[in-house]
Design a protein that fits this description.
The structure is a single chain. The longest helix has 25 residues. It is elongated, with a radius of gyration of 22 Å. The protein contains 1 helix and 16 strands. The protein has a 16-stranded antiparallel sheet that branches. By secondary structure, the protein is mainly beta. Helix content is about 10%, strand content about 60%.
Length: about 210
Amino acid sequence: MNNSVLKYCRLSFAVLFFLCAGFQLTAADKFTFKADKMSGSKALGRETTILTGNAEVRSDNLLLRADRIEIQGDDNQFIDCSGGVWGHEEEKEILFYADRLRYDRKLKIARLEGNSTLEDRKNDIVARGRFIEYDDENEITVFQISIRLFKDDMVCRSEYAIYRRQEKLLDLSGFPIVYKKDDEFRADKIRVDLDTDDVIMEGSITGTIKN
């Protein structure tokens, strides 16, 4: 086989591969993608698609953008984003920013790593941490390590927190501190009602209230 025929065969195979990969990705419910470059493998049991350069994936109401996005698993279940990660849960108006984000499309759970931020625009809440796990189905978010949560004039700090969005409750543990304007509250555990801004404390309670 001469070189020109060989090159044509390789090109035809590459085009066929990308067309097949694209069909499988977009055939799923509300699942689309785009990028400057695409590569991958269709080996049985190890299907992988890699998007690089202005990569973008939409899965139902979740839009994800990153420098690099890797898609794996049956029905493209797992999405791994890295580099300048930005995400938007459009129906609930929640934004994500992270160094890395991994998303399970079946469980609808997003895990953010590195410098991570979750912004709940409907409830005027911004939260930061080193690890964030967002359960979209149950609307529960777990924060870990160097947590900062901001709402109006209130700032909450801790090493571990659970945010229950439907109930508008925030549970803080691991050296929790809550600042409300000039007031300061510390305890072993603190619960904040984010609807009323009421603070409930438990264990080794201290506080400073300025009139």
